[in-house]
Write a structure and sequence with these properties.
The complex is a heterodimer of chains A (about 500) and B (about 250). Chain A is mainly alpha-helical and about 500 residues long. Chain A has 21 helices and no strands. Chain A is globular. The termini of chain A are far apart. In chain B, the strands form two sheets. A six-stranded mixed β-sheet of chain B has the order 6-7-8-3-9-10, with helices on both faces. A four-stranded antiparallel β-sheet of chain B has the order 2-1-4-5. In chain B, helix 3 (about 100-110) packs across helix 4 and helix 8 crosses helix 9 (about 235-250). Chain B is about 40% helix and about 25% strand. Classes of the chains: A mainly alpha (about 500), B alpha/beta (about 250). The interface of A and B includes residues 288, 292, 304 and 378 of A.
């Protein structure tokens, strides 16, 4: 038994909490479901391994050559995965300082809070690795089985990437605390995390579009110009890529570097952890902000009052806005393509259609959650003399209105430049946004707006249904833009997803 | 269908609501117009469930509710038009200012904009919120939030005000202000129904007091009438309340 207040004691405490959170999340609070969940995980894992085998069969026969093009593609892929890890780590490190659940209790105790933060930051690294490993594991296993066992070293490389992400996240959050203060750090860190999560993909897509006129991310990496600019295959810069290939020396070297970086970050900044947490605790309530003197009351209908309230609240919450508009960032590459090719019919337009439709569906889902479930004054609205149907209609109008406002310029340009693609996009956006909104209506569960981040864990079924429905409508729109009857297949799939969601919804009469 | 008694603000008959167990169990209750009625009872007695049904926030399983002669279950929109609901946890929007919030609420109740603005300014002044009327509510204390919620409840000039534990967590100054506002509303003829665990407040403010237990009304009347019912002549409301609820617990045991 470890001594109370020691690193091991805190680690055991955190592990127990994390395990209970995970099991509750997986079983939705029904412990008896654990067997069902275990069987489902095994089935999914087997399926993923089959898919990985099908995708990698060529590589398993021929092996992977560590040439410049491969090393560059691997480095870029690693950076892509790492940017997502860093984004997640930034959010988690910030949350470690701002979440008040048990922090006040621990900070008020004589235990050394630095040890708790050390454990929590290590947990951040492990959590950041978790999702990447879950996705990569079938591919690593297939390569290890059919090519070489050295591929198992990739797991260690993933861990090293997680440690490095946590190290950078700790340093960035500390920098934000020092430069912006506790009141602004939370929002700034969340915005930085969101931008990092999206920026790399966007930058790469934009570069690819500008250079090759295609939206493919990797084509540009195999071009002679790019390959001529990067160092030779024996350069030390390729250490992460070689570690990803499972080369033992590179794996060990990369792990040591990452562990050293995290240890340094913890040693250098740990003295400030408790101070930051205390500052964060007193900064949870921002000082009241004076608005311009209000305009006189305006005459408005009940539904207009509701719509305007939704829009006003969204506009005034920079974090919610950044989260909701994150999808819009992904629209930058197609916007660049549209801007570049305006007036000339371009084959690549067909690639824009599904991106726009998918983004509209995802955005509508987020906004619909905010408007329908994330209502901070449900009793007030319910006690007003307005029928529930009118309330819902006003909220749906607010959501669809916001989506329309954002996507209208794209659709307009497409309609002028390529009418068929434009029509397919407009129809797809309308149906995808409507479908995502409907799912949020069917699965509505009252929550605070500030719980927006947790919306995806409150109903996994709704989350998956929303994603698959958007994907289905995106595929439908893309195929419809190509004027092929095959569009019916994803349309039927998306309709089936919606029907399934409705049948499984708790609000179904 | 109820045939409303003359001058009754709220008339409840045979009201039932069951969750895991019966929360309200065949409740009959009448509150007269212009009355300050305080509803007391131990935790889980069914007070909040009852008031939520009166305010149209919860559908009863059975029974009838009439508000100033309007069947609240048949015509909830008309009933809600003259009712205000204030809960212990002030429900406001952090990123709206009190002024904007009152404009929104006035819009929801369909109040004429000019009239609503004049009322809003009066209410905000009355509740000492004028200096903060153009600040977002996000930095407000619990007391200030409750005052904003109270102002929003009054901006449509309701005839019936329902308050569920409105004094919870308020400092002495804010609590006094809330009580003064309620007294003033009763003086001008409105009806107030309030639940509270602070028996002294009920003792000093209420015209009549209802004591609930296990989803039913176990005693009702003025303080003196309650004392007589409890056989506790001359004692405090606290003693009377404990005697009444103890009897009820024994009956159910």
């Amino acid at each position: 038994m470890s001594a109370a207040g020691s690193l091991a004691w805190f680690a055991r405490h955190e592990l127990r909490l994390a395990w209970r959170d995970w099991s509750a999340l997986l079983t939705a609070g029904h412990r008896r479901r654990i067997r069902v969940v275990a069987v489902a995980i095994l089935v999914v894992a087997a399926l993923m391994h089959l898919i990985a085998y099908a995708m990698l069969s060529d590589f398993t026969k021929e092996g992977v050559q560590a040439d410049k093009a491969t090393l560059l593609s691997l480095t870029v892929s690693a950076l892509l995965a790492w940017s997502v890890m860093l984004s997640q780590a930034l959010e988690s490190v910030t949350r470690a300082f701002y979440a008040r659940a048990d922090l006040d209790l621990i900070l008020a105790s004589p235990a050394d809070a630095r040890k708790l933060f050390m454990v929590r930051i290590a947990a951040v690294a492990v959590a950041a690795v978790g999702m990447a490993v879950l996705i990569a594991a079938p591919f690593i296993n297939v390569m290890a089985l059919y090519d070489s066992p050295r591929w198992l070293g990739t797991y260690v490389t993933a861990l090293a990437m997680g440690l490095a992400a946590a190290a950078v996240a700790v340093a960035v959050v500390e920098l934000l605390f020092r430069t912006l203060g506790a009141k602004r750090t939370r929002l700034a860190a969340q915005v930085v995390a969101a931008v990092i999560g999206a920026a790399f993909v966007i930058g790469l897509q934009t570069a690819a579009i500008l250079s090759a006129g295609t939206i493919s991310r990797f084509q540009v990496l195999r071009s002679d110009i790019v390959l001529g600019l990067v160092p030779e295959a024996d350069s030390a810069l390729w250490l992460p890529a070689r570690a990803l290939l499972g080369e033992p020396a590179a794996v060990v070297g990369f792990l040591l570097l990452a562990a050293f970086a995290l240890a340094t970050a913890i040693v250098v900044f740990s003295a400030r952890f408790a101070t930051n947490a205390l500052a964060a605790g007193t900064a949870t309530r921002p000082a009241a902000r004076r608005q311009d003197i209000g305009q006189p009351f305006r005459r408005m209908s009940q539904t207009r009052a509701l719509r305007e309230k939704e829009w006003k609240l969204l506009r005034r919450d920079p974090w919610l806005l950044s989260q909701s508009l994150l999808q819009v960032l992904y629209l930058l590459p197609p916007a660049v393509l549209l801007w570049q090719s305006f007036g000339a019919r371009h084959a690549a337009f067909i690639l824009i259609v599904p991106i726009l439709v998918m983004a509209a569906g995802q955005m509508a889902g987020g906004l619909a959650w905010l408007a329908v479930s994330g209502e901070d004054a449900p009793d007030l609205i319910a006690s007003a003399p307005i029928v529930p149907r009118a309330i819902m209609r006003a909220k749906i109008e607010a959501v669809i209105g916001a989506v329309a406002l954002i996507f209208a310029p794209f659709v307009l340009v497409l309609l002028i430049t390529a009418p068929r693609e434009g029509l397919a996009t407009a129809g797809g956006i309308l149906i995808a946004a409507g479908g995502a909104t409907a799912i949020q209506l069917w699965f509505r569960a009252q929550a605070k707006r500030s719980h927006f981040r947790r919306r995806q864990t409150s109903s996994r079924l709704a989350t998956f249904a929303e994603a698959f429905s958007s994907i289905g409508w995106a595929g439908t729109a893309a195929l419809a833009a190509s004027a092929t009857w095959l569009a019916l297949i994803p349309a039927l799939f998306a309709a089936a997803v919606l029907a399934g969601a409705w049948l499984a919804s708790p609000t179904r009469p | 269908m109820l045939s409303p008694k003359p001058y009754s603000a709220v008339q409840i008959e045979g009201l039932r609501k069951t969750f895991d167990r019966p929360a309200v169990d065949g409740l009959d209750l009448t509150v007269q117009a212009g009355e300050f009625y305080s509803l007391l009872g131990p935790n889980g007695a069914g007070k909040t469930t009852t008031l939520r049904m009166v305010a149209g926030l919860l559908k009863p399983d059975a029974g009838a509710i009439s508000i100033f002669g309007i069947d609240a279950l048949e015509n909830p929109k008309a009933a809600k038009q003259i009712v205000a609901w204030v809960s212990d946890e002030p429900m406001i929007y952090e990123r709206l200012t009190p002024f904007e919030f009152l404009e929104f609420v006035a819009g929801l109740w369909g109040v004429d904009a000019k009239l609503a603005e004049a009322r809003a300014r009066d209410l905000l002044a009355w509740l000492d919120l004028t200096p903060h009327m153009h600040e977002r509510c996000e930095g407000f204390s619990k007391g200030m939030r409750q005052k904003v919620a109270l102002a929003s409840a009054l901006v449509h000039d309701p005839r019936l005000i329902i308050l569920d534990e409105p004094l919870t967590g308020l400092d002495a100054g804010s609590a006094r202000l809330v009580k003064e506002v309620m007294r003033e509303r009763v003086r001008r003829g409105d009806t107030v129904i309030m639940t509270t665990h602070i028996l002294e407040v009920a003792e000093r403010m209420a015209d009549r007091i209802g004591v609930m237990g296990h989803g039913r009304l176990i005693a009702e009347g003025t303080l003196d009438e309650l004392r007589r019912q409890a056989g506790q002549g001359g004692t405090s409301l606290e003693d009377t309340f404990l005697a009444l609820t103890a009897t009820e617990s024994t009956d159910f045991a």
